[in-house]
Specification:
The protein is α+β, with helices and mostly antiparallel strands. Helix content is about 55%, strand content about 15%. It has four domains: about 140 residues, no CATH class; about 80 residues, Beta-Lactamase; about 90 residues, Helix Hairpins, CATH 1.10.287; about 140 residues, Histidine kinase-like ATPase, C-terminal domain (Heat Shock Protein 90, 2-Layer Sandwich). The protein has a five-stranded antiparallel β-sheet with strand order 2-1-5-4-3. Strands 7-9-10-12-11 form a five-stranded mixed β-sheet, covered by helices on one side. Strands 6-8 form a two-stranded antiparallel ribbon. A hairpin with a 4-residue loop joins strand 1 and strand 2. Pfam families: HATPase_c, HisKA, PAS_8.
Amino acid sequence: MHDAARDLGRLSRLTAGCAGVAVTVFGTTALLMSLKGAPPDGFLADPAAALVPAGVALLLQALPVHSRSAGRVVHGSAILLTLAAAALCLAAFPRHAAASAATLLAIAVLVLLGQLIRTLVGADRRRRELAGFTDTLFQSMNEAVMVLDANYRLIDVNRRWRELTGHDADEPVRLDPPPVPPASGGDWLLPRVDGGSVPVLASVAPIPDEQGTPRAYVATYVDIADRKRAEETLSEKAAELERGNARLREANTRLETALTFKNDLTAMLTHDVAQPISSIASLAELLHADWADLPDDIRLELATKIDKNTQRLIKMMNDLQLLFRLDMGSITARRVPVPLHEVAAGVAAASTAAPDEVLIEIDDEPAALADRGHVTAVLQNLVTNAVAYGAAPIVISAARHGEQVDLIVQDSGHGIPDELLPNLFGRFMRGSGLGLFIVRHLVEANGGAVRYEHADPHGARLIVTWESAAG
């Protein structure tokens, strides 16, 4: 409609201008021809004289004006000229009634034509103002906008679209085909002329005609680069916070473990260390107080008990030292072939049990590939536990299975209750002190394993599996 009004306005002004010129020329010519007869009342009494101001009035209304003030001046002048033309017709009416009437009718037609011209010119002016406002609004939008026809051919883009895609203000669009976002819209990457892309929130909407058929499409793009950067920063902060929380949880776990260790160690020291110290103190006090009255055999018995309790304390201190080294991860295994019979004989000889209470059923062949000191410490702890909590006889045996060799310590006591088995090799197992915990870690440091079985018909059977050594 705007294009039709524009074209019709131009054609109307051209037609009205030509008509105004023609009427003015015709009126002037008719007036000059009437002067040859030298009318007695003067040439103004001729109705043809009215056509001159009427034609000039129509010509004025056909002139293009660019301001409202100029338009008012032109319109006012045209009205005055039209009134002058009507006055001339009325002045000539007594002498030339028919000609004057015809001239008045012609003037009326010219007035109507001038009014039509004013209407069309006003419509054209409003169209240009609306088009200018629409274009200003289109170019000043913060969103990037691209307008396409029904076949997705480019019609127009706004300033923001050019900025996002890297086009200059007056540069022809160089993206072919135009970057049309998916119909579903959403987050999308808008391509740029430099080969890069911009993250945008994109959408495309059809513009239907009266039948509902799309006659054009409008695609909009909102720059979300700042939002994406904020999301990435937030994700990084969240990941950093999660890492910090993980470190905090790990530290809390270590603190809880350390607290548990401290509490267990305190409880063990309170019971296991206090008992031999109390026994040593009591026996030493008895010896000191009644030394002169005690016979030699009683003195020897009391001194022997003091020595056993002292050795028990020394072993506890050695176990604690080894425990701290295990917690620090400073235990390393120097694995060499270790003859199991030789180690078993040494441990049995050093045991507090009677010689006939510890039996060795190992020939000279089995050897483990392990740290000799670790093998000795493992066997010492197993035998010590068997002596303390089991019953004689205690049998140390070995059996080879392919590339592995089992070292077995079995007693003849009541065995270990089933409810204690899940935590049997824990750090502070009730009834076994640190011994089995140290056994497990030393065996694992050498690539082995330790397990418990019920002995047949009764008793405890602890089996340590080592890697077998040749010879």
